[in-house]
Amino acid sequence: MKVVLVMTLSLALLLSASCAKKPQTADTGADAKVTTLGSIEVTAQLEEIPGEVRNDPLYDYAHVMKYKVLQVQRGKVDKDTIYVGHYNPAKPRDAIADARVPQIGGNVKQFRVGDVHRMALEVPIDDYYMGGIINKYFGQVNDPIYWAIWTNKVSK
Amino acid sequence: MKKRVPWLWVLAIGLLLTCAVLAAQDEKVAQLAKEVGGKGWIVYASRGESGTWDLFLMRPDGSARRNITNTPDYEEGGPRFSPDGKKLLYRRFAKGTTINHDLWGFQGNLMIAEPNGAKPVQIGGDREFPWASWSPDGKQIACLAQKEGIQVVDLETKKVIRQLPRKGIYQQLYWSPDGQWFCGVANARMMWTIVRMNAQTGELNVVHEFQSCTPDWFPDSKHIIYPSRPAGQPGNNGYGFTQLWYCDGEGKDAKMIYGEDDYHIYGGALSPDGKYVLFTRCPQDGGGSEKSGAPICVMRMADAPAIAGASKDLRKIHPEAKEATVLQLVEGWEPYWTYAEIGAQK
To answer: Looking at the structure, do residues A55 and A6 belong to the same domain, yes or no?
Structure first.
């Protein structure tokens, strides 16, 4: 009886351990898209969303947000702070692709300051996106604006 | 009973006055129709009998309307006569395509035909030559592409003759009649900014900021017409309504042409002599290309600024505006005007 109890407990422990590990696998935000799309891949913390994130069904736009770079996985990023344009940020990334921007996505549901994102990027934004851009840093920052192709959440 | 008599008189006189005003307004509209009826042709997109978007011609008073594409297997839109009125360019889309009011210049194929729609020729492939706009001599087009920027293309050889960075312009590029300028919608200090670009040097200046789009040139190449939705309008839950405006190429002397509470005014285009203005009035924002367009209207520029309807909010902002005399025609989208005589039916 003791053996059965020990085995059951062990199995339960193993199961709980494996369950606990699952989020850790997803923690890094790595997936087949974010690790291959674009020429740049970074993990960065969202530091600022200047202005209002509009939810306008009639007009599409990109909203430029400020990030602190934590790690560069691919490509070259010269600065610790980067400015990234996200397409229609009021919508979840897995529902964001449309006729204007067909190859874009990720698993971020909502943009919140403090969250960490793993992103596949291109730069400059004008070479990859042609539409309205809300850029509250215009005239203040001369850095290039990155274009977010794929945006996954990274759990702390 | 005796007390009611004066009120009945007041009511009767009021009714008579209202009828007189309406009759006078009808007379003014009839005069406008008579004035413009023989002045060339308007081309526009509208739903054909099959339900697809076709191109139509009509006289500026709405008469002699005829379908010039009549293609149940395609959708067509964005027609523009060449400056001499001898050609017509437009875009043709696959059947069932929803024509997006902001993306249509990137959608479908560029087509060039005779001004009456005859002999249509497809220029390039799908999505090529985006936002094509005539050069003054009609021998070239200017296009707006994402990476390539503004490209001037020779129509005979289809070769790119020269190229300029687009500098934030993202849609609705139009070449001025004198060839010196482009105008378009750009990201500058903010999105939805009307800009003017020197067609030779690429130097850019802001014309009008904030919620403005679909600019087009006056015949003098010095003024630009554009719809704009100014901030601070209380109507439409604070969203406001879009009016038709114009200003000079440097952004000075902005003036409203026409506005109306509860309607969004788009599709602004001048007659070739600049004396009349075309527009569409749509209850929904965007101009209606996703559905069936909106009524096309004609107004004298001499009557600007003008307001129609009760428009309490707008009249507070523009107390100087006149009562609009507007000739309302059929439903359509992106109308364009030529004084050229187009000739026999297709």
So the answer is: no
List of chain B residues with pLDDT < 70: 1-5, 17-22, 343-346
The domain total for chain A is: 2
Could you tell me the CA-to-CA distances from B58 to B26, B108, B337, B341 in Å, in that order? Answer: 21, 25, 10, 12
Cβ contact (<8 Å) for A100 and B191?
no
> Are B146 and A59 inside 8 Å of each other by CB?
no
Rounded distance between C-alpha atoms, residue B176 and residue B161, angstroms: 18
Q: How far is A125 from chain B (nearest CA, A)?
A: 10
Closest Cα in chain B, distance from residue A134 (Å): 6
Comparing CB atoms, the residue among B103, B107, B168 nearest residue A126 is: B168
Give a yes or no: residue A87 inside a domain.
yes
Does A130 contact B146 at a Cβ distance shorter than 8 Å?
Answer: yes
- Whether residues A19 and A47 share a domain: the answer is no
Q: In this complex, how many residue pairs, one in chain A and one in chain B, have their CB atoms less than 8 Å apart? A: 37
Interface of A with B (CB under 8 A): 58-61, 99-100, 126-135, 138-139
- Give the residue among B146, B145, B192 at the shortest CA–CA distance from A129: B146
Is the residue at A34 inside a domain? no
Residue A33 lies in a domain: no
Which of A128, A131, A134 faces B170 most closely, judged by CB atoms? A131
What is the pTM (predicted TM-score) of this model?
0.89
Contact yes or no for B88/B69 (Cβ under 8 A) = no
For residue B91, which amino acid is it?
R
ipTM > 0.90, yes or no: no
pLDDT at A79 over 50: yes
Q: What is the DSSP letter of B237?
A: G
As to burial, measured by CB atoms within 10 angstroms (0-12 exposed, 13-18 middle, 19+ buried), residue B98 is middle
pLDDT at B255: 97
Domains identified in chain B and CATH numbers? 26-31+40-338 (2.120.10.30)
Range of the domain at A4: 1-28
